[in-house]
Design brief:
It comes from Meloidogyne hapla (Root-knot nematode worm). This is BTB domain-containing protein. Residues 1-45 form the BTB domain. Pfam families: BTB. InterPro entries: BTB/POZ_dom, SKP1/BTB/POZ_sf. The chain has 51 residues and is mostly helical. It has one domain. The protein contains four helices and no strands. The N and C termini lie far apart (30 Å).
Amino acid sequence: MLEYFYIGQINDKDILENHPDELFALAHKYEVKPLMDKCEIIMAEKIGKLK
């Protein structure tokens, strides 16, 4: 999350792919809307793959 504040992206794809829910919770807590949106997209894609 700190990386996102400094450079506007997260280079560690493992965090985004494997922990989007936890990252979303942090983004929500600190009101980081662009990161929340990114996490929502990833979570929606994961749900879509389960169907």
